[in-house]
Write a structure and sequence with these properties.
CATH superfamily: Bira Bifunctional Protein, Domain 2
Strand content: 25-35%
Largest sheet: 8 strands, mixed
Number of helices: 5
Radius of gyration: 17 Å
CATH architecture: 2-Layer Sandwich
Order of helices and strands: EHEEEEEHHEEEEEHH
Structural class: alpha/beta
Number of strands: 11
């Protein structure tokens, strides 16, 4: 039996993906309210270019008027500050009931981080955590700490939504228009940049999915 239901979408507009998330998320909350069994979903996709701002984010971290970019802009109800989503980035939205996996919110975030850390280890990269910040980082104690995967979530009654943004072949120039996650003294990177060649997106996606299937086991 699979640990979760999987949706793999083509390049998707942010609003369309948000609507899908909200439908799945709200359906699970309704099932809890009615005393019914909930289901778990993982949505994997790439977005068309978009900047999203978390509920406690600072809009001034978008350094240029959005009209000067070819990206859209959305305010969201996830945690965290501003980030970019676009082609070449693997964005994942787990709609999970944490009780099914016997974990709390902090453990959930750490498990997502561990999935990405496991995945990039296939390419000789050592993913790390940065104290006081979520996501997966490289060279935390070195001269150029940089984030390869951002995480921003919402949890209600143990049901998760929003998720992670893993830079595989992402055009990193889009990050020049923002202060990513509100952290102005750290960099952003991608698997392509670190390895030095264009990555096989579908292969990396498959490897990450295998990490999720290994790490997220129902109790």
């Amino acid at each position: 039996m699979a640990n979760f239901n999987l949706f793999v979408l083509n390049q998707t507009d942010y609003q369309d993906a948000l609507t899908m998330q909200e439908c799945l998320f709200n359906a699970q909350l309704e099932r809890i309210k009615n005393g019914e069994e909930t289901h778990d979903y993982l949505v994997l996709l790439q977005h068309t270019p978009v900047y999203t701002l978390g509920k406690s984010g600072d809009e001034s971290n978008l350094k240029v008027p959005i009209e000067q970019t070819d990206a859209k802009f959305f305010k969201t109800n996830r945690g965290g500050d501003i980030t970019y989503h676009g082609p070449g980035q693997l964005t994942g939205y787990p709609i999970f009931n944490l009780a099914h996996f016997g974990i709390g919110v902090r453990e959930y975030v750490e498990l997502v981080e561990e999935c990405v850390i496991d995945c990039i280890s296939n390419y000789g990269l050592k993913g790390e955590r940065l104290e006081g910040a979520s996501g997966v980082w490289l060279d935390v104690k070195g001269n150029k700490p940089r984030k390869i995967c951002a995480i921003g979530i919402k949890v209600s009654r143990g049901i998760t939504m929003h998720g992670f943004a893993f830079n595989i072949n992402t055009d990193l120039s889009y990050f020049e228009n923002i202060i990513p996650c509100g952290i102005d003294d750290k960099g952003v990177t991608s698997l392509e940049k670190e390895v030095g060649e264009k990555m096989d997106f579908k292969l990396v996606q498959k490897q990450l999915l295998e990490c999720f299937e290994k790490r997220f086991v129902k109790v």
